Amino acid sequence: MKAKKSLGQNFLQDINVAHRIVDSISPLPTDTVVEIGPGKGILTRILADKVKKLICIELDDLLSKQLQSNFDAVSNVTVINDDALSIDISQIITSATEYKMIGNLPYNVASPIIRRYLKFTHKPSLITVMLQKEVADVITAKPGKMGYLSVEFQSECSAQKLFTVGPSVFRPAPKVNSTVISLTPHDQVFIKEHPGSRFLEMVRDGFSSPRKQIHNCLENRIAISKDTIELALNSANINSKSRPQALSLCDWARLYTSFYEMGVKF
Ligand code: SAM
Known about the structure:
Layout: E1 11-12, H1 15-24, E2 32-36, H2 42-48, E3 53-58, H3 61-70, E4 77-81, E5 100-104, H4 110-119, E6 126-132, H5 133-139, H6 148-154, E7 157-165, E8 170-171, E9 178-185, H7 199-206, H8 214-221, H9 226-235, H10 249-261
Parallel strand pairs: 2-3, 2-5, 3-4, 5-6
Antiparallel strand pairs: 1-8, 6-9, 7-9
Helix pairs in contact: 1-2, 9-10
S-adenosylmethionine is lined by residues 7-12, 36-40, 42-43, 57-60, 63, 83-85, 104, 106, 109.
């Protein structure tokens, strides 16, 4: 069967890498795990022996049928032929059941998939996924190298880079390196939004010209005076000459509140 590029089908061949990915979620015999994009089942086979319940969501009809027949006799594995970007988790897992999420994600939709699961009311307790290295770098970046995506994801979870593998462990080989990351969703809302003002809108404005200083980025985007912007940065204890990528999540949170207290909404 020919791999479908449109579905990001690069199948992992290296069993040692597969074991490392599975070990990264520390699977327990009491665990419920959701696997996104099981493909030909290299992670599925390892996981099935280790966890209580494994729910696999695969968009490809043919792969899904193959997996269903391969795991027909394995009572703790359920294969669902559906789109991980539209499936409603509450229909497959009760709100009382804690679950972990794992996947060697299709690279073209990796960020939207992670974003979706982080937004569910019933979120996974832990997410371990492999994705394109460059995207993993941004999601897990520290102040100094942060981008919009870093702030967006890290306001929902703590993010850690685990390990990187080259194209040769897949067939067909992708053109890029791949990195496994671990995400732990925050127990509580990290940024409490103020009425009528969206935190991420401000962050987007702040990253409008990443090479410029933060005051310039904001001046380009919001219709308020330079003085007001300086005042907000000052009261948030941020040097107005900093580049946006140098700001930490806490800096962005303080800036958002400073603006709100000065009557500026995003
Ligand atoms: N887990 C397998 C492995 O490691 O070899 C396959 C990984 S491959 C990179 C991505 C898999 O995700 C493919 O099987 C593809 O068909 C599936 N897929 C692509 N888009 C999907 C979506 N929106 N929802 C669920 N599965 C999807």
